[in-house]
């Protein structure tokens, strides 16, 4: 019987391996992956009582008996509620937005600030829809500096819906005619956080920054911050697993982690308990037989 060439056997093994891998369940990262939200125009048209177009605005909230509208031009318009259409009055009641006013007292990084309100209460604000480079990344320091130059010590308006899982307020920050979330993107100081934001206006800001090679887009291969954080996490997990895999070095003392009793190396229980670890001369309580 003729022998089968090694190269053919190798190819067959690869086919089998790939077939087995294909049948395995997806990794947790893939299994938990969610599709990006659809892009939507964040600017809404507003009409007066006769149906005539007043303006397009991405921020609208009730301010007493007036409606505050942040127009595409950057102007903040205050219009008596009675002067807008009935449909728009119903819409703003059905879509309430929380407003927080205060002074920026610190800038943690390119997408996070601290705000002090009129009651002297501090709030940590995460700029919604963007993700700035981490401090260890290229442009991490420049991103923070850009936001610091724009906002530190200034009175701002924060529009938000609710805090995130970390207790931070996820909001859009307005400083006079400027929308700082947008500014960070268009200057190339942050990424559009596409996985969590479907704001078409922010998506366009990133495309503009990319086309103009602004800020971080001057890099040959800019790395999204979320991938940088994931790589950092995996690297730390590898270090932790390597540390855990290293055998414990004898110290002359053994701690029974179940009872909390310390044994010295002359004791019959030294290194023999089912649960335990090497320890120092002051850890736990001394054994009644060997004195620990």
Automatic annotation (TrEMBL):
It is an enzyme of class 3 (hydrolase). It comes from the Bacteria. Residues 98-219 form the TNase-like domain. Its EC number is 3.1.31.1. Pfam families: SNase. PROSITE patterns: TNASE_1, TNASE_3. Keywords: Hydrolase, Signal. Residues 1-33 form the signal peptide. The keyword Transferase does not apply. InterPro entries: SNase_OB-fold_sf, Staphylococal_nuclease_OB-fold, Thermonucl_AS. GO terms for molecular function: 3' overhang single-stranded DNA endodeoxyribonuclease activity; nucleic acid binding. This is Thermonuclease. It comes from Bremerella volcania. The lineage of its organism: Bacteria, Pseudomonadati, Planctomycetota, Planctomycetia, Pirellulales. The gene is nucH.
């Amino acid at each position: 019987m003729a022998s089968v060439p090694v190269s053919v056997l190798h190819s067959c093994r690869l086919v089998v391996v790939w077939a087995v891998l294909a049948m395995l369940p997806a990794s947790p990262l893939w299994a938990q992956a969610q599709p990006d939200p659809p892009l939507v125009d964040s600017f809404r048209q507003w009409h007066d009582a006769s149906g005539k177009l007043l303006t397009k605005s991405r921020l609208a909230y009730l301010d007493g008996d007036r409606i505050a509208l942040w127009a595409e031009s950057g102007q903040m318009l205050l219009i008596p509620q009675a002067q807008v259409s009935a449909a728009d009055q119903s819409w703003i009641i059905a879509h309430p937005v929380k407003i927080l006013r205060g002074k920026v007292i610190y800038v943690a990084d390119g997408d996070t600030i601290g705000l002090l309100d009129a009651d002297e209460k501090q709030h940590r604000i995460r700029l919604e829809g963007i993700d700035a480079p981490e401090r260890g990344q290229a442009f991490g320091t420049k991103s923070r500096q850009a936001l610091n130059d724009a906002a530190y010590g200034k009175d701002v308006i924060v529009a938000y819906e609710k805090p995130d899982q970390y207790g931070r307020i996820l909001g859009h920050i307005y400083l006079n005619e400027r929308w700082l979330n947008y500014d960070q993107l268009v200057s190339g100081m942050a990424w559009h956080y596409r996985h969590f934001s479907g704001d078409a206006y922010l998506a366009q800001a990133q495309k503009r920054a990319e086309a103009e090679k602004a800020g971080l887009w001057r890099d040959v291969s800019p790395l999204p911050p979320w991938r940088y954080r994931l790589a950092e996490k995996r690297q730390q997990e590898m270090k932790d697993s390597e540390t855990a895999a290293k055998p414990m070095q004898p110290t002359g003392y053994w701690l029974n982690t179940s009872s909390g009793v310390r044994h010295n190396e002359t004791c019959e229980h030294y290194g023999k308990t089912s649960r335990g670890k090497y320890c120092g001369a002051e850890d736990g309580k001394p054994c009644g037989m060997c004195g620990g």
